[in-house]
Amino acid sequence: MTAIRYDDDDLYLPAQAERGARRHRKPRPNPHDRQASRAVLTEAVDPIELEGGFVTTYRPSRHEWGWLLQSLEDFYNRGLLSDVLAIIKGGKEANVYRCRAHPDTGLGLVAAKVYRPHSLRQMRNDQVYRQGREILTPNGRPVGKEAERMAHAIQKKTAYGREAAHTSWLMHEFTTLQTLYGSGGAVPYPVAAGPNALLMSYLGDEKLPAPSLHEVAIESDEAGPLFDEVLRNIELMLSHGIVHADLSAYNILYWEGEITLIDFPQVVDAAANRQAYDILERDIARVCGYFARHAPRDAARRGDWRDPRGLTGRLWRRYIGQTPLERDVSEARLYREDEI
Q1: Which of 124, 134, 180, 322 is a Cys-bridge partner for 327, taking CB atoms 3.0 to 4.6 Å apart?
Q2: Has 246 been annotated as catalytic?
Q3: How far from the centroid of its chain's Cα atoms is residue 81's Cα?
Q4: pLDDT tens across 123-148, in order?
Q5: Which residue range is the domain that position 334 belongs to?
């Protein structure tokens, strides 16, 4: 089976405010955070006005200016967004901004995930995740009759194919959020999708975005309930036939004792993707490893934390069917019986 390369997920930029009861950041330097900090600018004191009357408090850097405006102005024109306040996350393929929603929405603060220009992205080997997935249109529906021609264009990496692949990638994240949120999943509320950005509910306050789980020191007695909640969401995804495919403490937000799963563009089809089982096992191993490390006294009592492989098998059988190994054994047995 082809080996899969997994990269660390997007890293949150360091917050400058005290966490108080929301947990303090671990006292260890993170070189990735410093690299990300150099790549972006912080909030501006004075608002700036962009085209079409769109005034933003946040001052984009030169390389951000054009694509940030193009990506968010549609939300502004639709009456969904009134201001961009700060950048809160710089990642491999997208930045996330704290924004103020238009008063008519009643939402207050919202998060805008803006995808980088294709030339500046660092996503690698995305074909692993696209395998078996339907190609989605800008309205989130499968392309239908155009699927074969579009798949060929994507494979050839033509301009048309790159645009189609980007749209499908973005819409898989948005439609996944819609599905999971509607089913009670611990995910952000999806507000709207644009050609190059997603608008969703924001976790945090005016000064501090919710940190990712790897940035906080959870208490030992929190670990069990938080792990159960992550596991509930993994099962919820499997019940819909999908696997997160990049789940780790970097993609789980923590705020006031609760967790929220984020970043879903690479979700894989559990039935159609030949590597889905291995990808699921990787997700579960990451989660189990985190909780076992952060609650060592409880780990001995939580067999699931110490056996991610067994947990993966049980969940797969419950929601998908035979594991790949079991299926291979069954097919080999049938082949031998046919020969006899």
Answers
A1: 322
A2: yes
A3: 22
A4: 556 888 889 999 998 989 988 878 88
A5: 213-339
